[in-house]
Amino acid sequence: MHTGRAPRQSRAQDTRASLLQAAVTVFAESGLSGGSVSRIAKKANSHDRMIYYYFGNKEGLFVAALEEIYRQYNAAESAVTLDLEQPITALQQAVTFFVRYFRDHPEFVTVLNSENLHRGKHISQSLLASQFSKPAIGLVQRALVAGQQAELFRQDVSPRDIYVMISAMGYFYQSNQYTLSAFLGEPLSAPDRYAQWESFVIDAVFRTVTAQVH
Questions:
Q1: Whole-angstrom Cα distance, residue 116 to residue 125?
Q2: How many CA atoms lie within 13 A of 111 on its CB side?
Q3: pLDDT confidence band for 6 (50 / 70 / 90)
Q4: Which residues of 147-159 are buried (b: 16+ CB within 10 A; e: fewer)?
Q5: What is the pLDDT of residues 204-213, one digit of tens each?
Q6: Binning pLDDT at 50, 70 and 90, where does residue 1 land?
Q7: Number of structural domains in the chain
Q8: Rounded CA separation 156/149 (Å)
Q9: What is the CATH number of the domain that holds 56?
């Protein structure tokens, strides 16, 4: 009797995970409004009723999709090993990670764009939302504190502010790359242009954390 329970539970977990990954893909392509339940179920090789069974409705699935992209973001962040003996290197590692994450995970950017159109209505329903920022800001904080202790960085800069600064520059470049490319008349997604921007962000962060206090 117990031998069949584990395989059934495993299949259920696989089905839920497949639906969730399909939802992330579809919502990234079409947003909440354009991402239909039927399309998501088809992409996951499942059925509409399974979405309602596991997530309640499309909005519940969207909340779960938001949690999933943040979970993946935090998992990637937790895998970063900082060289805290070398604070300058450590902060550069942190900046590089965040900037490249936005570049390498466009689904993270586009799903968040969709949620911002809804003024954060769905992420505010998440019981996990308050936990999402702590690991990411913690990565910056560890590098910043190491530099402050070595008297390399200013004492009056906030890890939150530096994290938001990095995110703002990395996120905006990725989320607006098509309109900016047309507006500026240059392909911002080209490898050499992106490398130049990454260097600019790193330089801007270091100018901020090492500037003299006036």
A1: 14
A2: 28
A3: low
A4: bbeeebbeeebeb
A5: 999 999 966 4
A6: very low
A7: 1
A8: 12
A9: 1.10.357.10
Provide the Cα torsion 101, 81, 197, 149; round to 10°. 130
Range of the domain at 125: 5-210
Cβ(66)–Cβ(135) below 8 Å: no
Which regions of the chain does DSSP assign to beta strands (E)? none
Angle, CA 118 vertex, CA 34 and CA 35 arms, to 5°: 15
Neighbours of 43 (CB within 10 A): 17
pLDDT in tens, 107-157: 999 999 999 888 888 888 887 777 777 888 899 999 999 999 999 999 999
Distance, CA of 62 to CA of 105 (rounded, Å): 18
Indicate the pTM of the whole model: 0.86
The amino acid present at 105, given as its one-letter code, is H
